[in-house]
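note to self — DONT lose this again. spent like an hour looking for the file last time. sequence + predicted structure for the chain T wanted, 141 res
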Amino acid sequence: MMKTLKEIMTKDAVTVTLKDNIYEIAVKMKENDIGFVPVVEGRKLIGVVTDRDLVIRGYAERKSGSAAVEEVMSKDVTTVSSETTVDEAAKLMAKDKIRRLPVVDNGELVGVVAIGDLAVREKFEDEAGEALSEISEPVKS
């Protein structure tokens, strides 16, 4: 039987809300050694912020640390359910060049799966390796 994301996802993901600012997000990323933070309203996922978002949409555009989360977050986020198989997730991550995938059930964030979560499962090393190599390829224009 195929493993589902429920079995391998990080369940206690660090999150932020719209009340946080980009400095607070950067501090959370540093303290937790992460580069991806889901933005939630209660438990509902409304966006994500990556370390790249902070640089490109934040600091490179001369936004101050007190700038609102909304100014840098990505709103069109690909999500999957906790019943998604590891294989399906690996294929989706490779196809869409996604390194981290929020897991949402009934509209609520229940976890996050990173490409590394796929890689540490022996049986899925090939899929994770393939996904990572495809994600790392330059985008063809």
